[in-house]
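Re: [ENG-882] Designed sequences occasionally contain unexpected residues at chain ends

Forwarding the minimal case from QA. Structure tokens:
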């Protein structure tokens, strides 16, 4: 028998047609992507957002997150000069112990901001000497501020207004003059009063001094040891609230752990009801799977808002939101793992005369244990981050404290502190879960 193979003849016209199609496809796809990007650019109002953007504001917040400022204030109502960290009354320097860059002479003052920048306060007048520009003069009056500038164009960093003079030639140097006060800001790197409050007897001590104090027999407080006194002063720092932040972090971790474990405990038995090879009832499988879809179909944030309405604010609402969402997600994953098990191992256990519970215990659970452990630990890591967002809505924990510090620009360094601690906790959770995964699955 002869075998005939029908082949379409390859001609130059067909080759040219194929090349043209590929060329049109090569041109059309980039054009389609470009058209979509242009559409989204205007549909999402990106030009308006960029027009309203304030990059200088972002620079100021970035500076505040890694530095602090000392205020030198001449108040005309009290007719005195105060030097205070961040302008706080509780962090005001004693007039006899002023920083070496501030010198007072009765009601007048001279502030050395470094790099050739000087501010002289004489009565109600401030003279700001700026290298390569000149002297900016602002005098407070009953109606506002009289301003004298060097000749030439006015720089962008000089804000001239009849009611206020604002001069900021650099991010770390600033002068403000109004009819009620003259205020100078001088920035320094680091976080102010991070370890101990300004009025604490431990303020300004080095680590070696603190170590020696902890071992000393002479107690700072007769009722407690020096070591506990140091720890108590640190944890009760009113500016940084270390004790409250550590408690909030613990609440966030407990929220994630409780929610994840609760979800895992409920998802595993429900997964058996949703697995095709364990539940012959099609109606039961359908109902269980739709339950999973319902639980994970509603976002965790929505569940959190629902439970806040039902039970009020607190970590319990966050744990319930995590548990409800993850029950649906883990239940689906566990049911798929159950459907993919090897039945030979189950049959081998059955051949020994084992009961149904024993078949599940020794024939099924060992096969899905790696999936169970891996997924639960992964969701635990993810929920540690999610618990922060849920807490910001009112569930408590570190998220709520983060939102409170973000409400004012003055506390931006506290915001950075909380964000860094949250990242550290997530890293530790990741390392811990990796170690636990190796122990439980690989036996190492």
């Amino acid at each position: 028998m002869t075998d005939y193979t029908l082949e379409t003849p390859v001609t130059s016209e067909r080759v040219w047609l194929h090349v043209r199609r590929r060329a049109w496809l090569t041109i059309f796809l980039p054009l389609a992507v470009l058209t979509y990007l242009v559409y989204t650019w205007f549909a999402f109002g990106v030009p308006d957002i960029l027009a309203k953007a304030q990059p200088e504001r972002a620079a100021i917040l970035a500076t505040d997150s890694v530095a602090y400022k000392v205020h030198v204030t001449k108040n005309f109502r009290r007719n005195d000069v105060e030097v205070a960290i961040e302008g706080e009354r509780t962090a005001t320097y004693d007039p006899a112990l002023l920083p070496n860059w501030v010198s007072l002479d009765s009601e007048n003052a001279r502030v050395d901001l470094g790099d050739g920048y000087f501010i002289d306060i004489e009565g109600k007048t401030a003279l700001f000497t700026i290298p390569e520009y000149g002297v900016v003069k602002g005098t407070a009056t009953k109606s506002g501020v009289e301003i004298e500038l060097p000749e030439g164009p006015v720089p962008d960093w000089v804000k001239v207004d009849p009611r206020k003079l604002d001069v900021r030639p650099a991010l770390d140097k600033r002068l403000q003059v109004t009819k009620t006060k003259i205020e100078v800001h001088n920035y320094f790197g680091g976080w102010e009063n991070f370890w101990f409050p300004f009025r604490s007897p431990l303020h300004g001590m080095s680590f070696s001094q603190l170590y020696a104090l902890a071992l000393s027999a002479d107690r700072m407080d007769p009722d407690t040891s020096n070591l506990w006194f140091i720890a108590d002063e640190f944890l009760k720092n009113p500016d940084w609230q270390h004790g409250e932040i550590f408690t909030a972090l613990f609440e966030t971790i407990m929220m994630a752990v409780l929610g994840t474990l609760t979800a895992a405990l409920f998802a595993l038995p429900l997964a058996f009801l949703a697995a095709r090879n364990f539940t012959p009832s099609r109606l039961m499988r359908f109902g269980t799977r739709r339950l999973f879809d319902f639980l994970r179909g509603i976002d965790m944030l929505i569940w959190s808002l629902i439970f806040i309405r039902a039970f009020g604010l607190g970590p319990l609402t966050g744990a319930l939101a995590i548990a409800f969402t993850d029950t649906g997600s883990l239940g689906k994953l566990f049911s798929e793992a159950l459907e993919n098990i090897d039945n030979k191992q189950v049959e081998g256990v059955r051949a020994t005369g084992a009961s149904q519970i024993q078949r599940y215990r020794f024939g099924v659970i060992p096969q899905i244990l790696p999936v169970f452990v891996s997924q639960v630990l992964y969701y635990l890591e993810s929920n540690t981050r999610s618990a922060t967002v849920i807490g910001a809505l009112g569930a408590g924990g570190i998220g709520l404290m983060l939102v409170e510090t973000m409400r004012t620009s003055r506390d931006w360094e506290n915001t950075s502190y909380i964000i860094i601690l949250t990242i550290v906790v997530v890293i530790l959770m990741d390392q811990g879960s990796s170690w636990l995964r190796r122990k439980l699955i690989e036996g190492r």
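QA comment: On inspection the terminal residues look reasonable. The chain has two domains: 60-189, 242-442. Proposing we downgrade this to a documentation issue.
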